[in-house]
Amino acid sequence: MNLGAPVRSQGPPGAGTIRDASRPGRRASTSAPSDVPTVAIPAEHRRERAPRLPEVSELDLVRHYTRLSQQNYGVDTGFYPLGSCSMKYNPKIAESVAALPGFARIHPLQPDETVQGVLELLWRVERALCEVTGMARATLQPPAGACGEMTGLLIMRAFHEASGQERRNVLIPEAAHGTNPASVRLGGYEAITVPADARGLVDVGALRGLANQYTAGLMLTNPNTLGLFEERIEDITACVHEAGGLVYYDGANLNAIMGRTRPGDMGFDIVHVNTHKTFATPHGGGGPGAGPVGVAEYLTPYLPVPRVERDRGGAFRLDHDAPSSIGRVHGFHGNVGVLVRAYVYLSLHGGDGLEAVSNLAVLNANYLAALVRATFPLAFPDSRPMHEFVSTAAELKAATGVRAMDIAKRLIDLGYHPSTVYFPLVVEEAMMVEPTETETRETLEGFAEALGQAATEAAESPGLLYDAPLTTPVRRLDEALAARRLVLRW
Ligand SMILES: Cc1ncc(COP(=O)(O)O)c(C=O)c1O
Fold it and tell me: pLDDT, tens digit, for every residue of 66-82?
């Protein structure tokens, strides 16, 4: 049989965008025959042209999205040591529970007596978080850590205003998370930077010089973005309290300390936690998450409404009666599905289990740091990291020209999600690694080997790293351009 000249393959159908696969008249679904009268859409509501939706068969549609999902990388497919993000494995049981109809198919406007189960769950989550953080009450409304920060700042503001004090600024240590100064602005205050000392910790002497009668408070990320625990934490809280300010604990890194110590016991007045970092609810792409905020007893009047209360008879209800409240920070009750997952995680572990989680998170980070520090030195070698560590590729860059970004891109070829790079800003060629407690020793060793291989390649064939990633559907992206010139389409 003569097959003729070979035809150059265009790639399998469906390898482009869903629009490339579109052909007029193809359909992925069939509608049931209409059993209601046809009514013409009034002219003022009609578009000039029908929306240009892709026209594809069901099979093309399934193949397209399955292919895209296979190009994606997530915690369920591989190691994801993205520092500051706690990309840990989320137990699937939490997903099953959140999908139960009693949680997933209720409406936020249902009368309290018809949603007693979910109200009880929210009540219990609040108590559990207060227990873990050492706070008196908490709001579960904020849908993310950054919103929790803003909520805490508004509570701080409400407190100072109620006491008739004119406070103007909030102190932010240099190694704070980037959202902290932004939240301070949203809270109506000016952010003042507190420098770090040679070990990456708050310079307490400098703090003393900055705290005064205009200080509304201090916002402390602890462990800080270098992964370091503030050793002089009680001096820090005392110094701000003496100036009449409040102390806010950014507890997004709580999985380094929970079960071992509590912000409330360290003297903090306000704390937020990121359930999506600490209590194994999935996150990424900006949410959905939950950033509950706990406060000390004297700040409870300012918490958002409604609050879940339990009557003497044991019934749960939403209480809107709080005249000093800062109001709502989210529609309805926050991201309830996320809070259900957090409850499952809290209940599964219990107090001892949470402590074991922190211990393992810290152990894993320190083990991995020990494996890689000869090649990628720790940015602050005299301080012991907690749940994450920051290495630097500055020496490698000086010797080979290869930068932290090149190493990150090469890691993709070697089968790993890159660590965070160029954050925190205070470290040159920063590589911020957070392995989390859910990874095995073998995974940590495999990642350390991959880093070692990338460093060897940097010395022997740097071009390979400049071109990386070589194995991905899209090669190296211009990230600065992507961030500066957003092309947002729907
Ligand atoms: C220390 C710290 N604070 C605040 C945030 C902000 O949380 P979110 O991204 O949920 O707004 C993060 C996020 O990872 C964080 O690591």
Answer: 999 888 898 999 999 99
